[in-house]
Amino acid sequence: MAPARASNGTTSSRARELRRTFDLLARTEPYYACARWRRAPYDATPYEGLGTGEYVPGVGVSAADAETLFDRLRTSTSDGWTDVVGHAEDANGGVKREVDEDAGSGEVSVVGNRVVRKPAAPVTSREALGSPMRLGVDVEERPLWGVDCYTREAILASVATAPAFAGEDRRDKRVEFFVKRLLPKLHTLGDDGWDAAVLAERVLEDAIAEGDEDAAAASRALLWAIHELDDADAEKRANESTKKKAKKAKGDTSTAVQTAQDAVSEVELVPKEHRVQFRIHPKGTGVVCINPNGLKAGTLVNYYIGEMYPPWQWYERQDAIKKSFPNMNLPSFFNITLERPAHDERGRHVIFVEAMHKGSFASRLSHSCEPNCQTVTFTKDGKLTLGMFTVRDIAYGEEMTWDYSCITESAEEYRTGFCLCSSPGCRGSFLTYAGNGAFTAIVNKKHSFLHRNAILFVASTTPLTKAESESLYVAGIRQCALEKCPDWVVKWAALTLQYIKLEEKELPDVLMKLPVTEYGRYDEIGAKYEAAGVASTRITNLVVTLDKIRYVLNRPGQRRDSFFRALSDDEVIDHLWSGEASVFRRFIITMVNSGGDKRNEARSASMSTAAMFEKTWTDTRVASALKAIKKSVNVVERPETAEQARARLLQVRAALEHAGDKAFHAQARDLLWLHANTLHYFTIEKFDLVLSPPVNIDDMKSQISCEMRTKLPNAVKGNRDKLLQKKYGPLYVWGQLVTWYKQTVYAPDASLSADRRGSLSLPDPESCYSAVPTKYTSSERRSLIKLMRSNIHAMWPTTMSWSFKNPTKVYGSPMFDEALRETFPKEYASGASFQTLLGEFERS
Ligand SMILES: C[S@@+](CC[C@H](N)C(=O)[O-])C[C@H]1O[C@@H](n2cnc3c(N)ncnc32)[C@H](O)[C@@H]1O
Q: The SET domain covers which part of the protein (predicted)?
């Protein structure tokens, strides 16, 4: 139906004003330019309904693992316990704490030193726990629609053109119309949900029938805006395309007329030309309240049940899904974690619950940034279970939603998860990005790559203390998380926990100093709440990492000792000076070979170091250097201590300064300095490779619409099963332990060798005396010093003339010493600070 078009001056100035608002919105509101606009509803994802409170083992979960999972559902917390504040017990051994009812009316309250979410409504009686809401009676599953943030604001701005809704002070009234009139109607529109005009017309009909003049005026204003602006734009676009076509038809009048007619009919027939300012998107199946009396706050909606997976297997499955469906940009979030409470006798653990194929309608609720339901973990019949509860009264026709609180480690996923909750306080994405600068501020400063390796080093070389063991217990990291973990892993967990606590203490300050955003600024309570949330996520990641590591360490025949082994004094002497592949010997060989005499090269590799000093070398730079070294350094006897070995490297360095041709020796001198100034060395003992059985993801094939991988990556070499098999390489444990706060990296060990360049692994002596003598210029030296000064963790760029093959697999550097000092100031205080050393190095 062609809309009536306003033609008077007032109306067109109103239209101009509104257009200006839209232009402004397009610049300020996120997600106007969200992915393609889909107008067809999604097919429902069918699922098998499970019985009340029933959990079942996931696909491919072994009988033994299933037994463990069922056992982990058992809890020592008493029946009726919930993780909602007020019922929550202190992590420290089950002391009940009262909720501070006066702490404010907001969602957040500080209890003791913990900041916790305040329940919006208490969970109702125990009897109510047995009777979830009924499909078809209280609630209904339906294909639902949602508006993006731009569209929400465009609708509110359009409604504001009705005099009764105009003005800054009437935003609440506009929002009320949007939330109470438009959204419930939207949930009834079926296939027409994409069309804002149909929505406005239906609301107008209702308003007229009810005699609600305000609502009628708001609907008319919206309809007017849609037709005045949106349709006009569509028509304009169509006219432009007609003109283009007509121009193409070059004078053929009959073709031009025909083309114009085609274009006009397109305006009417092609919906994609319309509503671009008012984009309503399908969001799949959701759940709507159809109980004529609505639902009271605190009602059990349903049990959130499904298939259980242990953490290691859950991530194996996710990896297999991602590898098989490379075009899937966002997974479907039907899963939830069931977390054991910290004060349970056996402590924390995490069970992954997948509800995509088996579960209840609780898993079909959409996300909302301003939800009316929440999930609650509670104890029933001695077992933990998850339930969805209403947190406020819900009216007939309202969509039921909860805050997914889903954290992603992928920036792409975060951007793809644009939120359609339509709530006025929508955050834009239904995911929270873990890489957000504010949340990584303390990690970057106090828990960077070398700090995390420092923790591993200390965990591998010193025993667990009683205080550390107690702190693990207090934090709920007890039997479930720690059983079958070797001592060094337990120590690692204790030290990592120390970091988590430090971060929780320091993060609020960082958050409060953040610049004001459109969502405002953190106040003290908000910042503490956020930091507590980050700490809780970190502890979950710690527990998940322990589970993954344990899986690898407990394979038959696998080594159980730590893979980090500190070098003894004797080994350090060999490494620096006396060994077959010592730094000193490799340096001498490299230098004598740099003379370019190929016959020497062959000989020097087998020649003893002492013999090399006796021989006459044709290259005068080499000959004079050897002479200078021999004169001032004892090159024959084995040093007695590691300290002496270091001192000798420095003597060699000093001798080179007097050996003539400074530029020739410049790089070697710097390398000798780095090795001589390293206090802590360690080596690694690899684990056996672990190959998991192929993951069975057949159940996913019918659910995921994107293409299954047809071309196999090279690494898989034609065998599809290999694609579905997780390979835990010999350095996997190292990689996972140093990236413990991330879980979705497929091969956390893959980037280790790059990360180690320079920072943890010192350059090879073979990189000195390059074929191009001028390569190590003073400007490269300056940039190297600048890099080390600004960031001890930085890997050295591949453009610099250093190599890092590290054939002896000995690790350690002055930068690593500094990280040890920073992480454990009491235990590793000795030695000059790295910055002081660097100052000396720069001047030398
Ligand atoms: C747990 S499922 C909910 C049920 C699902 N809509 C269905 O059709 O079965 C979660 C998925 O629903 C969609 N969804 C839920 N809430 C959303 C929201 N606020 N914005 C956008 N998509 C949402 C997303 O595709 C998300 O991955």
A: 274-405
